[in-house]
Amino acid sequence: MQQQNKQAQPARAVGTPFDEIGQGFGWFEYMRANYPVSRDENGGWNIFRYDDVYQVINDPVTFSSEDVPNFSHNAFLRETIVALDPPVHRRLRYLANQGFTKAAITRIANNAIPLAQTLFDQMREKKEVEIVSEFTFPLTTRAIAVMLEVPEQDWPLVVHWVRGTDKDTPPRSREEASIEQNRMGQQVYDYFKDKLTELRRQPHEGLLSDLIAADVNGDRLTDDEILKFCVLLVVAGQETVQNLLNNALYCFTRFPATLDHLMRHHEAIPSALEEVLRYLPPFWISVRRTTVDTVVRGQHIPAKAIVQAWNASANRDPEYFPDPNRFDILREPNRHLTFGYGIHFCVGAPVARLESRMICQMLFQQFKSIERVSNDPIPMGPGPLYHVESMRLRFEPRG
């Protein structure tokens, strides 16, 4: 099942309307062909081709995740596994993996089923739904709350943390945003500090209890390490699944033939979601800092340089993805780099994949048609986690 995406003029995609996001991919295409490794006006290095992006994200010795401005200093990422290098990263990853065994992943994904069903029942009555505020946001915030063993009476706190601010208007400066992020991060940390004390006395079946019990040759996670992991999951875990579901519904309704196919062939859902991850990834870029002078595609990059590896561009590299601007839900192979590669491959990727597959299957089982209410441009939020801000869809329930 293939659909052709319209061509766009080369331009950097930052804060553009979502229906114009093809400009970003036009820019990627231009840069891959002409300046695959290039230095920007801020002194950072940008990497666009698949092989080169792979080189950057798969070599933590040369391309460090530590001490990266606006990344490893972020209140929600600081001193977590995404912003650390070996050997500290390796130790934390081995221990954290015990919270994401196959059985644990299935349990976490299954917990989302009744949450989704409650929202589907409401959608059945409404017929027309603003998909972000009425479905994907409440679903994923509640799912992350259940995963972290937060009782239902405290779910509004998770909504508050995910939104990231107490204010009605967004921060007006980077400094103000940093202060707000630090304050929110501390709120999450303090809440789960009390939760850990409770769970150590009386463990439950859940991720936090699994992390408390994690043991590798007598080595265990400290409370501080678990708490920082909680802070990371509240933001990154929720937003990744929300954006994957939003992007999937965007793509499926933009290319109705693919939606018709999926309605009849649920076995194609896993492949379709992988194509969504490639075609319109929820996270576009991986940022690193060079530890030594190095060379990428013949370009000399000095030590301590900031390197921006564009995963979204690598996912459209024609050397790896024939006819890359087609949305092809049966694409094979599909070795996209959306979840990274190597030691920093997303620890929550199996949960995001399984949860999204289950929810899409439920959706297609319970509704016989899904379509956009209007053809107006769909607003897109700026930032490294590109996301649908709002999208109204019409749902026709099955009998």
From TrEMBL:
Print the keywords alphabetically: Heme, Iron, Metal-binding, Monooxygenase, Oxidoreductase
Can you say what this protein is called? Cytochrome P450
Q: Pfam families in the record, alphabetically?
A: p450
Q: Tell me, what is one Gene Ontology molecular-function annotation carried by this entry?
A: heme binding
Its source organism is Dictyobacter aurantiacus
Q: Which Gene3D superfamilies match?
A: Cytochrome P450
- Which PANTHER family has this protein been placed in? CYTOCHROME P450 YJIB-RELATED, P450, PUTATIVE (EUROFUNG)-RELATED
The residues that cross the membrane are: none
The cross-references to SUPFAM superfamilies, in alphabetical order and at most eight, read:
Cytochrome P450
Q: Does Metal-binding appear among the keywords? A: yes
PROSITE patterns attached here?
CYTOCHROME_P450
